[in-house]
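Q: What changes when zinc ion is included in the input?
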Amino acid sequence: MADGCKLCHRAAVSDGYCSYHGSAVQKVKESFAAWSQAYGGLGWEDYLDRLTKTDGTGKWVLEVIRDMKSAGA
Ligand SMILES: [Zn+2]
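A: The predicted holo structure follows.
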């Protein structure tokens, strides 16, 4: 199956995301541990909420967060 990215028209390379959205997902996941620690055990949902409200969160990251939240993962 040659699916495209869930969030844009580019070809999907991993997990249904293109390389841009895929690396945004990686960044979100990688930063979670540090954030969780910094905020004393921040939960995943709260973390995503905070990220969306943080200045400097990139367009790609915002798009994958929206997708993760709507997927209810
Ligand atoms: Zn994409």
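Observations recorded in class: The mean pLDDT is 92.
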